[in-house]
Amino acid sequence: MHGPADTSGSDRAELLPPGYRVARWEVTGPIGAGGWATVHAGRLAEGQEEGVPGEESVALKVLPTAGLSPHQARKVAETARREVEFGRASSHPRLIRLLDTFVLAEPERPHLDGAIVLVMERAERSLRDLLATGVSEAEGARLVTEICEGLAQLHRSGWVHGDLKPDNILLMADGSAKLSDFGLVTQLTGTHGTHGYAPPMGTFDYLPPERWKAPLGEQGVEIRPSADIWALGITVHELFASGASPFPGATPMARGAATQEYADGRAPLRLDGALPPFWRALAADCLAPTHSARAPHTAESLLTRIAERPMSQASPAARAAPRRGRRRAAFVALAVCAVGATLWPHFTHGTGPGGPNAEPPGRIKVFNAEQSCRGRSDRNADCSLGLAIDPMRPYTVDNVVATRVWHGDELGVDCRLLLGMPIIDEADTHSAEWYRVRLPRADAGRGTAWLPAVRTKDHPSVPDCPAPTPTPTG
Amino acid sequence: MVRMCNVRSECASVTRGEEGAVSGVVIHLPGCRGDAQGEPGGDAVTLRLGPGEVARFGRGSATTPVELRLDDEAISRLAGEIRVTDDHWQLSNLSATQSYLVENPEGAGEYLRVPPRRAGAPIPFEFSRVVLPTRNTTVSFQVFAPDHVYLDPDGPHGQWGSRTVTAYSLDETALYFLILVALCEPRLRDESPVAVPTTPQIVDRLGNHPACGRLTARAVSSHIDYLADEKMRISAPAETAPRREARRNGKREAIVGLVLRFGLVREEHLALLPPRTGAAGQERGTAG
After folding, report:
1. Within chain B, how many helices (H) and strands (E) appear?
2. Residue A78 contacts B where some CB pair is shorter than 8 Å
3. Of the residues A91, A121, A151, the one at which a domain ends
């Protein structure tokens, strides 16, 4: 039983009219059109028995081949083949299930004749639809966990998604997330199953930096699971930053160029200040600039990390970290926030408990690269700077003393460490140098802490520090 | 009429290959023979700049370093600057008096005039020739921007930002595309499953095309190199034969195989080629 006659074959979103019967299913309406496919909503036609749960309401993905040149038709068939092959090989609650597939024989309707139809479980909307509204941290955490579960399953069974993006992450009626669109999935090959070859296609905003330089070989472009991890990093950022990409630019090409500037070390990674600290650190790891730096962060390891995240960070209290409307410059790959900032009315220097009997060999003035912080003297928490406990460890919240310092503060300095953790400040100044400074007041039993050299303009002539011994976290 | 001498650069040696290919722009200054002043001739220079990178050009000096040295006394020590932005580049004219021209060699006379002191003029051409006036001649160099993106012909209309696209897109109106179609023609017409036309055959085949009146064998070869190295970044299988000719053939075959396989050149593109003459028709199958 066919619906009203199709008015226009070129209106691809309306390819199948409502009421059109495809095998056991009946079209109820259009959903949307993608690259080579149009997607329709469908339901099990009357009188048909539901074989598998979830078949009652389906999505019909139609890939027309009519009017295409043999090469184009081959491309469409190749896309469909990948989806079907993958659909047969995998079944997982976090992956959209392929229920059935067939080819339409409609000699009377040339634009439909030969079209490939994939019947899949139906989602309510995509993650893209959710981005503009934003999510709470708890909601975001659940979604990222589910996406990681899907990716972990894919990677475990030897596939790379190849086109992960919010448009291809679907949300079901119960709110759960599933990965979809397996037209570019690639099976890992090679002796160690480390990489596969994908068609030279992708979505600019989600391509890892190495893909912009990747050579095109006989089998396509080399792709590794770390490409999905990069796309996950972009997605996590978009999820918590109301859809904003971590890379600046008005067009996908501009953002692609910014991606490469970052990967080539000419620009730091500037994540949006709206990202909660834990997710900020996780996104930064997913967005490590090279395959090898990203490789340790597998979907599996990210899942463990999410499950084990400190309760203080899982609780809403952690969201009280300072937020500013504008984008906030961040230390490269490190999450730094003004946790534990204390107002400090009497800043005294001189006899710190670390060396009450010895005058420090030099003094330095603290410099804040944020210009707006330099003109003020109100010791605003947003303008405070941290001092590290251990200069060899990442400069993160658990590695700073409670004492904060501000632009213009003068500190006694003992010695200089040439090779600590490299730091890039808001003005892109790079340095791995640190100064051991006297704390004006004992802080958890400590008399000294470490100031990155990028936080001062002074060059005191002080001795080199002895290599620091690892400090237990305070 | 074009003189380019004694160009020096900090990155004169260019590495190619899997890790050497860089997206961004390629600047090329052809070399020239030793001149009358007895100075040694400059080597050809190729500079690759990634997004955000800058190259200064001019006569240069100890205190005014430039990445591209243009040795002509009519040119300022610091004459201008090229900055890679997004998928294109910007030209800053640092001269106080001279206008520079940016020509599109394929654009039937298309050009831009960049007036003195213009900062960051965006250049829209994939191929450009930057021309600086000197006393009675000109100095020029070429800038290629291979990262220009073209949308897929079969994609849907409307919003394209988050769409899946072919990552190696080609300008179907460019001369390189015409050469590519000519390279693929025998296979597209199912005439010869193996042979790929030679350079003289391409020159011959495109001879009647209005855009190819003065097409030389050398131009065909450099377009093929550009396609293989900058556009597709082809990782050709290692050639055992040391002969340059064999390597070239390997590269051609690799390009043809790839563009057909991934649908970058299709049957409908054959219409871009000029009609075949009887003589050309008789040559079928003899290529190779």
Report:
1. 5, 12
2. no
3. A121
